[in-house]
Amino acid sequence: MGAKHESTGAAGGGSRDGDRRIGRRALLVGGTAAAVGTAVLARDELARLWWRVPGVERPREEGAVDYAAARWVAASDENWRRADRPDDFGVDMVIVHVTQGSFASAVKAFQDPSHRAATHYIVGQDGRVTQMIRELDVAYHAGNRDYNERSVGIEHEGFVDRPQDFTDAMYAASARLTAGICARYDIPVDREHIIGHVEVPGTDHTDPGPHWDWDRYMELVRRAATSAPSPGASKSA
């Protein structure tokens, strides 16, 4: 979500992030396998793609979370796309958002199929964490397809022009969450890989805004990354 330079469409995702078709991917895989003269590549690729065949669903545990401290509340299916990350799309980035509203309003928006945008997580001012999309799936949150496919998005309750909204509990909880994500995908803990929505190419959003304390946040993420393992080391199916 987050503040915009001007109102140009659904917050976060912009237009719907269209899916890739299995036919084109399978043809590319087949051609590559033939070129290198091996069936191993095709077999491994098909093992990752079998669940994309119409009528076949990848096994998923209902209500499972990637971060143990999070509570699961499902976003609308219209606000994200099924994937098999990091097998099909490598994850190398965390994107920080601000809701421009309350925690409850963000949850409601992400459950609305007409919103066409959602992040993987929402962090409240009291430190609570709700997961709405699995990390293996592509959330429509950055307004840029490439960035959507390679990132995990985290919303933070509040408004960009109200520094008092960014509480100690929020910073601490978000830092632990981000440190866990970075550990799972071997993401460097730096500002090249942990960015704000405003830094996404082509965005019309300004969040997390000038009052987000990046120096403080990054130090907290580094501390969490070097301390005892944070909750949520397991991946959902």
UniProtKB/TrEMBL annotation:
A Pfam short name: Amidase_2
First-level EC class: hydrolase
InterPro entries in UniProt: Amidase/PGRP_sf, Amidase_domain, NAMLAA_amidase_2
Biological process annotations from GO: cell wall organization; peptidoglycan catabolic process; peptidoglycan turnover
UniProt cross-references to SUPFAM superfamilies, sorted A to Z: N-acetylmuramoyl-L-alanine amidase-like (SSF55846)
Keywords: Cell wall biogenesis/degradation, Hydrolase
Keyword Hydrolase: yes
Gene3D superfamilies per UniProt: Peptidoglycan recognition protein-like
Annotated ranges, domain N-acetylmuramoyl-L-alanine amidase: 80-209
EC id: 3.5.1.28
GO molecular function, one term: N-acetylmuramoyl-L-alanine amidase activity
Reactions it catalyzes: Hydrolyzes the link between N-acetylmuramoyl residues and L-amino acid residues in certain cell-wall glycopeptides
Stated name of the protein: N-acetylmuramoyl-L-alanine amidase
Naturally occurring in which organism (per UniProt): Streptomyces rochei
